[in-house]
Design goal:
- This protein is an alpha+beta fold.
- It folds into 2 domains: 120 residues; 154 residues, TATA-Binding Protein.
- It contains 7 helices and 10 strands.
- The strands form 2 sheets. Strands 4, 5, 6, 7, 8, 9 and 10 form a 7-stranded antiparallel β-sheet that branches. The chain has a 3-stranded antiparallel β-sheet with strand order 2-1-3.
- The radius of gyration is 28 Å and the shape is elongated.
- The termini are far apart.
Length: 286
């Protein structure tokens, strides 16, 4: 029997095979399973196309994000349709083998779940894209250029608790509340050795290193992330610790586009400093 066919509950293959039984075989081809399969797979493919198309430069990232949102809605519609079809069949007393329906719903659920998780993460974090271990004196870019709109659209302008604060002050407050663990670190290595190690680590991570100046304790690089191929710029500042023993490392990571980074820059800073400093890291007293 075709796996996409339905039959009344209680119906038998014998009735279909034996016309003399007087019971017609009420077996019909059901298009709903195929429709749900096409929509479920199509939602995921649409999302991939939107992402990779933006990364390959076929259209602006804002277009890709818009299409990704539409693909998410399509996945939700597919899930609702699949559930509706399943309930309708049960109410009609039909017993159905429906792998296409289930595969389509599963595809839609996986895609919608992934996008939904990303949205939930974004909503749980402030919509900022500039992360630094030093909020009072963030490391400055020299070889690279800080985006012109970096301090535009910082959240909190209409928040009564932030009334009177400048964009940078609002950024610092939101940053501190969301990422209290992002702090300067101290290592028991001279400045030049830290920069050399940071250069090797950045190269291992396939970052595009544009400057590694040991004499000035500065490294600048660009990391490319996600299927959208977003560019995030990084600057590392290393200075001698008080007393001349060891070094103080500060790091800043900034997204070139967008308002919210969904925590990507903070995770990059955590991971890089952890790998760079290893077990010699202690919180800098500053």
């Amino acid at each position: 029997m075709d796996v996409n066919q339905t039959e009344p509950v209680g119906g038998t293959q014998d009735a279909a095979a034996n016309p003399s039984s007087g019971k017609p075989a009420l077996i019909k081809r059901d298009p709903f399973g195929l429709l749900v399969l096409i929509l479920g797979a199509g939602a995921g493919l649409w999302g991939l196309l939107a992402s990779f198309g933006s990364g390959w430069g076929f259209w602006d990232y804002t277009v890709g994000l818009t299409w990704l949102r539409y693909a998410f809605f399509l996945a939700l519609f597919t899930l609702a349709l699949g559930i509706g079809v399943f309930v309708w069949r049960r109410r009609k007393g039909m017993r159905t083998k429906m792998p296409r329906l289930l595969v389509g719903m599963l595809s839609a659920a996986i895609f919608a779940g992934y996008i939904g998780y990303q949205v939930s993460v974004a909503k749980s974090l402030p919509a900022i894209h500039d992360i630094s271990t030093d909020l009072a004196d963030p490391p400055q870019f020299v070889a690279l250029q800080l985006r012109a709109d970096n301090w535009d659209a910082i959240p909190g302008a209409d928040d009564g608790d932030m009334q009177g604060l400048s964009p940078r002050q609002r950024w610092a407050l939101l940053h501190q509340e969301a990422y209290p663990d992002i702090r300067s670190v101290r290592v028991n290595m001279p400045v030049a050795d830290v920069i050399a190690a940071a250069d090797r680590l950045a190269q291992d991570r396939d970052w595009d290193v544009v400057a590694a100046v040991q004499a000035r304790g500065r490294l600048e690089a660009t990391d490319t992330v996600s299927a959208f191929r977003f560019k995030d710029d990084v600057v590392l500042r290393v200075r001698p610790a008080a007393g001349g023993e060891g070094s103080i490392i500060d790091m800043r990571s900034v997204s070139r586009v967008g308002q919210s980074d969904i925590g990507v820059n903070a995770e990059r800073v955590r991971s890089f400093l952890s790998d760079l400093s290893g077990t010699t890291t202690t919180a800098a007293n500053r």
